[in-house]
């Protein structure tokens, strides 16, 4: 149903009580009547030469004058400290709000409707008579309304039209002012001296934000829950650590922060909930390996071999590397079985289906939320040019759709910029690969002294692998931070017309780089390490060093080590940053402006907080995590469990950051998670291919299966079968090494048979999984039919409500719109 949210017209939205709010404290002007809808802040530093501030003062004066000409009202408040803080409080009067409400297509309520937003899991638990510990009664539940696009000429038909003070929500009022701020000139228009963004960048103003609805602290007195402000409600029922097992109050989040932020938390909560089955199955697969370890015949043969299998040195004899016995690595062979047993094949198939099913059901959830929050089809509307684009565009051209002249930047001038950006991306990716090669060389160099040490020889590969993974993680985090700043500058330079285009290009640049940055070392271990080693007497070399072989437990075990270090290490570092960095930024910010703890107004309290930095980093972190738990899950079945634990923490940290530590962001509308969904779909497809090759070429699953089929079902003698003899005369002593080769170093018949089996497995695995995934996609419609019928019915009722004042409105019957034709529904939805 249509539902009241930040861009719908509010009838009884929360407003701080004028009886309890002293005049001029920040929420209202000094008259106690006009709301403070937005605040601009600048500092007047004492002792500075006046001439150095004259240009800034001129810009500020012209900017504020133009804001007043645009219809806004202002009030200035000066806080005398070591450096004077100036708060320019802005208020949008009724006429301005009505004009922009129609221009920005705000939604207005026509009729109150009973809420029908029922949680499916709550229904299941109720049917099974199981207490629902996730349920919580959050006060001041937002009401649901039938709505239509706001029209000034129809103002008498909308609910609450008599209460002009509270008719528009705080989010709507701030969005109107933000639109004006971004289009207001402060200097010469030809020099692109337009908009609040440039004023903030040049520190002419040091803050621009809408106010929070009061403090977040819960009063200690007997104040009833119904009198808590929206920020306190979110703090008590969402941001507290004690709410980790509760449903998120998504409607409250959307009402306070807008749809874009609410969609992020809805997706994060949905993803976290779906991690539960993946984590449970992963733990069961891991436990299967633990309990069946004692029956692993190859491990038994290795551990009981004694000095039967004398192994060739793991580095050249001339630098002191010694011969060793296979029984020395008994423990590693046992541990490797935990990550390389038949259960991991089942789990790889399970996660492939899980990823596709998760995305299909998110599309259905997203459709319900978009309809419930009244943003279904929102992104199909004509999007305005970005303020930065409008400011820097060189000419004006007529928009072929609207017929209105708009800022225009010629494509011929954009093309060299885009090509230059692509060249820089390629250079940065090459730099990542250079660092990966440096880590490989480091691992090879540090392995030599470890292999030479008799006491450390059995643990040499493990020590080298883990230390190299940690070094690699440091390189990854450092390069990632540098590139993200570079990508932002490149995307700004490329002059993308709309905000959606800008964000999509930025996301593409950063994700492409971070994909290579985070996954390249893992792909190397999974598919390249140990493949081009050669054999005794004919070893392949890289920079004078022998190519790396897999560790004693096999490449899959080393892959699990690398994956766990990078994934878990990244999660720990990010969580520490989310706890520490905001506090450090807050302290530094307060130190810069010489603010004490004696804040008196809401302007002071909000200015002491740090600026909201958007959702880019939050989505990037979760999407990279999704790649870790799907692309390489065959090597590390516990990855979804660690992801689940991280996400429980992540939701609370993000909630606390939004409610307590950052200024209130300007509410933005959004229908879905945008281009991130396409990235998730690509990762799920890549996961199928990656897991097929992991099982076929990195795991020991197929060699063991073929050996069982051809020789011994119980794998007796498999260890000896996999070890080749070094060619005569190549080394000082006879020794064995892991390969399917004969005495001359040629591949055996079994190797070629195994290669055919491996390639066949990859083809069959991919075809079966992709075919089943397409069936799931076909069987699970993106938009439930019940929702389509509800959209038609509600559109009919909305038109019916205005039919008596418009003779031109044609009544719409349910038969007029075919199920599945949402374009027709959306076109009719914006007609009035």
TrEMBL record:
It comes from the Eukaryota. Residues 28-250 form the Anoctamin dimerisation domain. GO terms for molecular function: chloride channel activity; protein dimerization activity. Keywords: Cell membrane, Glycoprotein, Membrane, Transmembrane, Transmembrane helix. Its main location: membrane. It is found in: Cell membrane; Membrane. Belongs to the anoctamin family. This is Anoctamin. It comes from Acanthosepion pharaonis (Pharaoh cuttlefish).
């Amino acid at each position: 149903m249509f539902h009241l949210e930040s861009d719908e017209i509010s009838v009884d939205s929360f407003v701080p009580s004028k009886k309890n709010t002293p005049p001029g404290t920040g929420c209202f002007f000094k008259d106690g009547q006009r709301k403070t809808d937005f605040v601009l802040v600048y500092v007047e530093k004492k002792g500075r030469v006046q001439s150095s501030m004259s240009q800034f003062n001129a810009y500020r004066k012209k900017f504020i004058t133009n804001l007043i000409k645009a219809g806004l009202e202002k009030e200035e408040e000066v806080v005398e400290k070591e450096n004077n803080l100036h708060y320019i409080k802005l208020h949008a009067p009724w006429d301005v709000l009505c004009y922009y409400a129609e221009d920005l297509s705000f939604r207005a309520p026509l009729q109150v409707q009973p809420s029908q937003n029922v949680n499916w899991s709550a229904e299941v638990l109720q049917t099974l008579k199981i207490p629902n510990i996730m349920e919580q009664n959050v006060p001041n539940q937002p009401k649901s309304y039938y709505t239509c696009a706001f029209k000034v000429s129809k103002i008498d038909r909308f609910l609450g039209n008599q209460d002009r003070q509270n008719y528009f929500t705080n989010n709507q009022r701030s969005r109107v002012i933000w639109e004006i701020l971004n289009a207001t000139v402060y200097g010469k228009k030809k020099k692109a001296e337009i908009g609040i963004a440039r004023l903030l960048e040049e520190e002419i103003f040091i803050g621009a934000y809408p106010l929070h609805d009061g403090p977040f602290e819960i009063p200690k007195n007997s104040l009833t829950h119904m009198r808590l402000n929206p920020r306190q409600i979110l703090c008590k029922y969402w941001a507290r650590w004690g709410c980790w097992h509760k449903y998120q109050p998504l409607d409250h989040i959307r009402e306070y922060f807008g749809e874009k932020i609410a969609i992020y938390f809805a997706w994060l909560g949905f993803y976290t909930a779906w991690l539960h089955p993946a984590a449970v199955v992963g733990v069961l697969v891991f436990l299967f390996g633990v309990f069946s370890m004692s029956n692993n015949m190859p491990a038994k043969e290795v551990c009981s071999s004694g000095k039967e299998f004398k192994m060739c040195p793991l580095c050249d004899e001339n630098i002191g590397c010694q011969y060793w016995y296979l029984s020395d690595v008994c423990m590693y062979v046992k541990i490797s079985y935990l990550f390389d047993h038949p259960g991991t094949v089942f789990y790889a198939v399970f996660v492939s289906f899980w990823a596709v099913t998760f995305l299909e059901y998110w599309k259905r959830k997203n459709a319900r939320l978009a309809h419930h929050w009244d943003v279904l089809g929102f992104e199909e509307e004509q999007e305005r040019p970005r303020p930065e684009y409008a400011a820097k565009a060189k000419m004006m051209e007529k928009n072929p759709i609207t017929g209105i002249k708009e800022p225009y930047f010629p494509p011929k001038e954009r093309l060299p910029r885009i090509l230059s950006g692509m060249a820089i991306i390629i250079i940065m990716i090459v730099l990542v690969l250079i660092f990966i090669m440096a880590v490989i060389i480091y691992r090879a160099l540090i392995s030599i002294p470890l292999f030479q040490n008799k006491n450390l020889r059995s643990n040499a590969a493990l020590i080298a692998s883990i230390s190299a993974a940690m070094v690699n993680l440091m390189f990854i985090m450092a390069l990632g931070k540098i590139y993200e700043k570079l990508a932002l500058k490149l995307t700004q330079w490329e002059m993308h017309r709309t905000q959606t285009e800008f964000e999509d290009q930025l996301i593409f640049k950063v994700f492409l780089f971070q994909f290579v940055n985070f996954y390249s070392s893992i792909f190397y271990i999974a598919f390249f390490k140990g493949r081009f080693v050669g054999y005794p007497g004919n070893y392949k070399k890289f920079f004078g060093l022998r190519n790396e072989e897999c560790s004693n437990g096999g490449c899959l075990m080393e892959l699990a080590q690398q994956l766990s270090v990078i994934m878990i290490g990244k999660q720990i570092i990010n969580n520490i940053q989310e706890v520490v960095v905001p506090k450090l930024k807050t302290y530094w910010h307060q130190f810069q402006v010489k603010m004490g703890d004696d804040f008196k107004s809401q302007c002071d309290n909000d200015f002491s907080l740090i600026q909201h930095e958007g959702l880019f980093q939050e989505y990037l972190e979760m999407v990279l995590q999704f790649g870790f738990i799907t692309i390489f899950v065959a090597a590390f079945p516990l990855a979804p469990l660690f992801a689940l634990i991280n996400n429980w923490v992540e939701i609370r940290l993000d909630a606390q950051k939004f409610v307590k530590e950052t200024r209130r962001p300007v509410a933005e509308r959004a229908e879905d998670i945008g281009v991130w969904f396409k990235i998730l779909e690509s990762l799920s497809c890549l996961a199928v291919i990656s897991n097929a090759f992991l099982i076929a070429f990195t795991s020991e699953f197929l060699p063991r299966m073929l050996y069982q089929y051809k020789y011994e079902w119980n794998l007796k003698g498999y260890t000896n079968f996999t070890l080749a003899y070094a060619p005569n005369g190549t080394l000082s002593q006879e020794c064995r090494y892991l390969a399917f080769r004969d005495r001359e170093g040629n591949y055996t018949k079994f190797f070629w048979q195994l290669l055919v089996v491996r390639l066949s497995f990859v083809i069959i695995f991919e075809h079966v999984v992709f075919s089943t995934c397409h069936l799931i996609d076909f069987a699970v419609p993106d938009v439930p039919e019940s929702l389509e019928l509800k959209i038609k019915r509600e559109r009919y009722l909305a038109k019916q409500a205005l039919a008596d004042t418009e003779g031109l409105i044609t009544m719409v019957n349910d038969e007029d719109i075919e199920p599945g034709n949402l374009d027709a529904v959306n076109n009719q939805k914006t007609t009035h």
